[in-house]
Each structure stands twice: as C-alpha cells, then as structure tokens.
Specification:
CATH architecture: 3-Layer(aba) Sandwich
Strand order of the largest sheet: 1-9-8-4-5-6-2-3
CATH superfamily: Glutaredoxin
Number of strands: 10
Shape: globular
Largest sheet: 8 strands, mixed
CATH topology: Glutaredoxin
Distance between the termini: 39 Å
CATH class: Alpha Beta
Radius of gyration: 17 Å
Helix content: 25-40%
Length: 195
C-alpha cells in the first residue's frame, strides 16, 4: 500500500514538472503605468516575453522587485520584454487596486507594463496560482508558446545566495536558440486572491 502511494506521488510530481500551458492566446489588459490598453500581440516580435504575476501586497513579490528591475536592465536590449500582471481581486486585497498599482509604478519608475487583471481572465488563461509566478513566452505562428513556468530563482529572501537563476538561464538558452533545459519549477509566493 505504501509503495502504491509513493508511486502515485512520484507520478504526480513528474507530470507536474513536465506539463506547461502550451498555447497562450492574445489578451488585452489595462496598464497602471500609463492607463493605456496593452495587448500580448504588441510584443509579438520580441525574442522572449517574461510574464510575471505579482502583487503590491505579497511579501515575496516585494522581495523580487529589485531583481525584476535588473532583468529589465540586463535583457531589454536583447529583445526580451517584461510584463507584470497583478491578478489579485482588489475587493479582497485593497493594496492591489489599480490606483495603488499606479502609485507603485510611479514610485519605482517601472519601465515595463504593470497590468491589472481584476476580472482574472488572464490569470485563468495561464493557470497562475501564486505571486510571483513566471511564464516565459515565445511567439510561434499564430499563438504564444510557454517555454518556462515557475519561480524566478531558488532564494526569495537572500539574492546573493541564489544558486539557481531559473529565469535568467531560460532566457539565455532561448536567446542562444537552444532548448530550455529546466522548463518548470515550483513557484514560491502568496496564493492569488480570487474573486
């Protein structure tokens, strides 16, 4: 009996690690940075698109803010686009209202979109569950394909102690035209506050 349970757990772990949401269709959300609509198709020519589900309130999201800004500085000139999406229902998390998102974007001089998904349609499209949670996309034909999904790296609390830079490694492989070796990892963060 114990061996059957162990086998089932192992199979679930293996299937979780190998399944990605493959095809992502276009979507449009409001950008808190400038109050304009932003569509995924606006970035169709990018070499890679890093979608990060994040929030104002989540302590884990706050720990990654400087690292996300560093990604922008490191990869913007290489054809990589970064998009932040706030998936939280603002009625359950007042800190995640579009007004507070706009304030945060101004105070931190965001150079990338910070999109409000207050109806959570895009969150459901991706199957996102936590903040922060990353999806790296690449346009293939008429749709976007997920190349990586999971955590930014393996140490939210101490940036200098990171040993696995998951997003950076995946981006470097994509930019070199190589397959992504680590396609999924477990996102660590706060559970998305759903409607």
């Amino acid at each position: 009996m114990k061996s059957t349970k162990l086998l089932l757990i192992l199979l679930l772990i293996i299937s979780w690690q190998t399944v990605l949401p493959q095809n992502i269709t276009d979507f449009t959300l409001k950008n808190a940075v400038d109050n304009k609509a932003v569509a995924l198709n606006d970035f169709a020519k990018a070499k890679a698109i890093v979608i990060i589900f994040t929030s104002n309130y989540c302590p884990y999201s706050k720990l990654y803010e400087a690292r996300i800004a560093q990604f922008y500085e490191q990869y913007a000139d290489k054809g990589v686009k970064i998009i932040l999406i706030n998936p939280n229902d603002p009625s359950k998390s007042a800190n995640d209202s579009i007004e507070k998102m706009a304030k945060k974007a101004r105070e931190n001089n965001f150079k990338y979109p910070y999109l409000a998904d207050d109806n959570q349609k895009v969150t459901k499209l991706f199957g996102a569950r936590k903040t922060p949670e990353v999806f790296i996309l690449k346009k293939l034909g008429s749709h976007f394909t997920t190349r990586y999904h999971g955590a930014i790296d393996d140490n939210p609390q101490v940036p200098q102690d990171v040993s696995n830079h998951y997003v950076a490694k995946a981006l470097d492989e994509i930019l070199r035209g190589k397959p992504v070796t680590t396609k999924t990892t477990r996102a660590t963060g706060c559970i998305i506050k759903k409607r």
